[in-house]
Amino acid sequence: MIKTDVLVIGAGPVGLFAVHQLGLIGLKAELVDNLDKIGGQCIELYPDKPIYDIPAAPECTGESLTNNLLEQIKPFKPSFHLNERVQEISKENNNWKIVTSGKKIFLAPNIIIAAGVGSFEPRKFSVKEAEKFENNGVFYSIKDKTYFKNKKVCIFGGGDSALDWAIELSKFSEVTLVHRRDEFRGAEHSASVAKELEKEGKLKIKTPYQIKSIEGDKKISGITISTEDGKIEKIDTDYVLGFFGLIMKLGPIAEWGLNIEKKTIPVNTENFQTNKEGIFAIGDICTYPGKLKLILSGFHEGALAARACFKLARPNEKYRFEFTTTSKNIKERLGVTKGD
Amino acid sequence: MSKITYIEHNEKTHTVDVPNELTVMEGAVQNNIPGIDADCGGACACATCHVYVDKKWFDKIKKKDDAEQDMLDMAFEPNKFSRLSCQITVTDELDGLVVKMPLKQA
Q: Does the predicted interface ipTM exceed a cut of 0.85?
């Protein structure tokens, strides 16, 4: 069990800056994120796309913004718990008890939900058999590639994951790459490598096909794919892999007794508290009259929520507003001596 | 102002007036029409405002760019009439447009 002042759900820019604001006032935070990396949508959806509306940063990318925020919160030594989704929360005296998908348990008087549009999960096949075979022949990620050695594998998708895995697995498996159109959106280089492998007979590419059905009783025996014009083909295969990117789902947050409005959580604009004491929501996931889904709004929301967290984490202390330019306390927390 | 007709997957039909310059996605969201989620808010970054454009109308709409084409790979059961409704801006020429929503958005 990990005891902390604030559990922050979501390691996107808003969650990261909340850690900064908490750190400045002396509160310790733990961050949980369902992704395997830090940065949230900025890293998952648009790491290279320029962002132009971060105050005092005329242009940055999702990646540089994340890196700068990490640098900014370094003095506070936050702990990250990646690949973990918060599953359950319950009240335990003055604390919230938080349990994650990996069975980590946290105890904290405050929770800040900075979860964007929810947690990222793989997009799945729409055919009904896919659910039956999920994790038993149908996969949306690869943990151990040797599992597929000398097997027949069908890979669906047109992005980097589909191309990279098709190329990699073709070294020791019989791979068919299926995509719904002729163009691949992954890196040009990977697409040409795949096409070269096809010419050499080391990889089969089927376009423009989509999955129609998966056959098999206890395990997969084959699949049927079809074009939009109704052309049908059957492929013998042991495994079916889908790489269709990630989708954001609100997930377990919906079951914590919080008010939810159109997949967002209503908060008050004084401290961004939800309908539950000690649970705050900031960034894209919160809503209030005039809400703007901008990163800069999330920064402001985090600053105010952090001050409210202080009251519950330090009930016997008085919060004093201080500037980073002049406060000795803050400088100590930041580990700087400049400007004294 | 143009009349846009949104047909849910269960055939329930909604016809609303949408001001020019708004997107077909915004027309649905502002009128509380179910079936279009628009999780990313219209940034062509999520594929949850996917619609099938009525084939009579498909060629009258400005062609999709690469970013939309890529994003449609991630949509639920896309076909050749698939578009992201956040990328269709309403103009006078689209008065009477009909779009159909997929069974689900993701």
A: no
